Amino acid sequence: MLFLKIGYLTAFSLIISHLETVTGRQDYVVELPESSPKMQLRWNVDYADRVVNFILDISGPATLSTRIVGIGMSDRGQSTNADIVVMRYKIDGIELKDSWSDRAGNILEDDEQNYYLADFSVENDRVSVAFSRDIDTHDKQDYVMENGTTNLFYFTLVQDTTQRKYGFSDVEEFLKQAADTVLNASDVESRMISLQLLKPDVPPSYFGNEQHVSFFSVLQPNVTLPTQVTTYWCSTGKLPDFIESKIHAVGFGANVTRSNRDIVHHMEVFLCDPEDGEVSQYTGICDGVNEPDDVKRCNRVIGAWAKGAQDVFYPEEAGIPFGEYGESRYFRLEIHYHNPNILVDIVDSSGMNFYYTDKLRRYDAGVLEVGISYNENLAIPPKNEDFVLKGICTSECTQEGLAPEGINVFASQLHTHLMGRKVWISHLRGQKHLPELNRDNHYQSTFQEIRQIYPPVRVLPGDSLVTACSYDSTKRSNVTTTGDSLFQEMCISYLHYYPLSSVEVCKSSISTPTLGEFFLLQKLFTGQPQTVNFNNLASNYNRLKWTPELVRELEMTYESAPQDVECRRHNGDKILGNRAMQNSFE
Q: In degrees to the nearest 10, what's the CA dihedral of 493, 497, 502, 508?
């Protein structure tokens, strides 16, 4: 059985906290990890003027010896091809320079100075610098801030050259040295953090919650994990006995065993099928030979977390229902562990916290999983910088699975494995393309936030949703298929919505017969593969020689091929059946 912990909260403490400014705009605060001296970045977004306002707070014993601070933005958090603001502080003033680094890493002063110093204060052990920049400066050397992930890096330099590799007395000297001696940004010790700078302009009260809420934790029962790279471990449990009637969960978040933070990749909590009554006690390998059938039918997602995500809270009108009469009181916790170093004797009690209230809200909320099905039918060829895979939630599935009024999507969590670089969700109503539900052009698999969508987006019966993922396989020497392992790939999104509908999963993949035909045609026209393995179609990918022409042919096949559509209810039952459907994703 799962371990349950129960508690009471009077306030929520988040890594990124929310403050209210005197201007009425919402501030966000993040600590810059491993910074020396300690640094904290605050910011808010003025959407009317398209400006981001920053305050950098620097504090601690090393503050006075630090004279140069740099903060940069780049595609992947690298210090080359980056937009950098360099600042020097001293008792009588602050100097601030808009700078950039080229492909070789040389730090140069920008011809256009688009960072603006607003205010500063210098004390004995604390320096605060307020500055701003337009969201898009239309300067080719400046980073364009977007709604998705921003990968930020930062560094400090000191006057005493014995303390760092480089030490400069002012910004001009720093930049002059960069130009004259070809100082490389990668030679400066820096740290990187991923965050969402352009958060939606949400009224602070909309995702607000009661000041006093209770919580309970769903945890693995001190399981000893197998000594292997990839493990999916499932455990069943039951709601606490004190939940005697319907309650609403208003938020949830991860509760990860401190020593296992590097190996817990993602987790989900599923409510079981009420028709099964009392569900079997089980803890073991997910979908293992000994897993009871009633445990496998625990399929309604009530919480999903992935590495990098913070606690998520629901809008004021919706909550996840627990304890309702006629619904199951049993659930299944599933955790994906990634243990690349094959560490032994790992014992884990990770899980999730659910924050709840007995003050019921207007709507029951749910989670809809869209994207690519969990099979090995799709693949990313090696040595490709931008290879795209797509999965569709079809109009037929939403037509059958959604109520006439549709659903309101208020949050989305994008999910890939290691090679994912961009993810987006297209929303179609007939032939009309509506605004995208979510997009992240700088996606990081280690930073999988649950992103708020405001105002919520209405998805109606008959709409279709296409989840697309772009992958960078330039460092892979072999083909990578889709699948469960972290070294395989996924392309999915968890959509948080209200009111609760009957559809739980709405995904697709290339139809198996079409994939078989693709390999047969390759054998006929190119001689590769020499034989087609119909018992394991995915294995044929590794028998192909991946030329640019073949990569393009595979892309066109994926784009136009019939799809095996997966449209399921909360208990796993099929809504449409397993049938292929012609769809061009357009």
A: -20
pLDDT of 162 reads 37
Q: Which of 248, 265, 338, 415 is catalytic?
A: 415
Count Cβ atoms within 10 A of the Cβ of residue 383 and give its class: 0-12 exposed, 13-18 middle, 19 or more buried. Answer: middle
Residue 144 confidence (pLDDT): 96
Handedness of CA 508, 510, 516, 517 (dihedral sign): positive
> Is 232 annotated in the active site?
yes
Of 28, 116, 206, 232, which is the active-site residue?
A: 232
Active site residue 415: yes
Same fold, 1-14+205-364 and 368-586: yes
Class of the 1-14+205-364 domain?
mainly beta
DSSP state of 174: H
Q: What is the pLDDT of residue 310?
A: 85
C-beta atoms surrounding 343 within 10 Å: 12
Separation of alpha carbons 237 and 281, rounded Å: 7
DSSP bridge pairs for 508: 372, 565
User: In which order are the strands placed within the sheet that holds 407-415?
Assistant: 450-459, 407-415, 492-498, 366-372, 503-510, 563-569, 580-581
Total count of residues recorded for the chain: 586
Give average pLDDT by consecutive 10-residue segment, the chain, 586 residues. Answer: 46 32 63 88 94 92 68 94 88 84 90 94 84 96 95 78 44 54 71 93 76 86 95 95 92 94 93 93 94 93 87 92 91 95 96 94 96 95 97 95 97 94 97 96 92 96 97 96 90 96 95 94 91 91 94 95 92 76 58
pLDDT for 211 equals 61
- Smallest CA-to-CA distance from 489 within 504, 512, 472, 511 is with 472
**Radius of gyration in angstroms for the set of CA atoms belonging to the chain, rounded to a whole number:** 26
Strands 503-510 and 366-372: parallel
pLDDT of residue 282: 97
Q: Is there a cis peptide before residue 455, judged by omega within 30 degrees of 0?
A: yes
pLDDT at 59: 86
Angle between helix 548-560 and helix 512-526 axes, rounded to 10 deg: 150
Choose which CATH entry (1.20.1250.20, 3.30.360.10, 2.30.30.140, 2.60.120.230) describes domain 368-586. 2.60.120.230
Domain ranges of the chain: 1-14+205-364, 33-195, 368-586
Q: Contact 508/372 with Cβ under 8 angstroms?
A: yes
Class level of CATH domain 33-195: mainly beta
